[in-house]
Amino acid sequence: MMGLVLATEREAQPLLKLLAATTVTESPFRLLRAVVGEHSLEVRILVTGMGKVAAAAATAALLSTVDIDRLINLGACGALVDRDDLAPGALCQVGRAVEGDHSGFGDRPADSLACLPVDAPYLANVDLVTTDIPVFNGQRRTALARFGQIVDMEGAAVVRTAAWFGVPCTL
User: Fold this and answer.
1) What angle do CA 122, 123, 124 make, to 5 degrees?
2) What is the pLDDT of residues 35-59, one digit of tens each?
3) Which of 55, 65, 103, 121 has the lowest tally of Cβ within 10 angstroms?
4) Which stretch of DSSP H or E encloses residue 124?
5) 155-164 and 52-65 are packed helices; what angle lies between their axes, rounded to 10 degrees?
6) How many Cα atoms sit within 13 Å of 45 on the Cβ side?
7) pTM for this prediction
8) Helix %, strand %, coil % of the chain (to 5)
């Protein structure tokens, strides 16, 4: 079964409506189910809440209770670099994800994690930096851009949790 992970209700609503998803549970995290496509693929849709802790906890809860064989994390992000293919509304896929405010040794983040790619040559391929707080400061944006082209608040936590459970993850 495939799992779809989103942080907020606002990000999830268009997808939930499109898939006519039905609620499985509201607590401790919102979990829904939907049946997709001509082959009736059953999917679980998880709304984690914002931030790395919520994303990791919700993803671990899902993966420890539901037999998920592939996870896809989707949602909004910000650009750390100025590129036409990363303009507002652009779609992209992540090659590697790193926790940008989690030090490994010294002034660099912990090791990045590979994400499972999709065959979509029309998507910009980027590296993701996940942080605990939004990036509104130009100096911080420049510093984080050393590690990736986009930033969010959940992705690396979802990928790391999926890796602990041996489940491939696409962002």
Assistant:
1) 120
2) 998 889 999 999 999 999 999 999 9
3) 121
4) strand 124-130
5) 30
6) 24
7) 0.92
8) 25, 30, 45
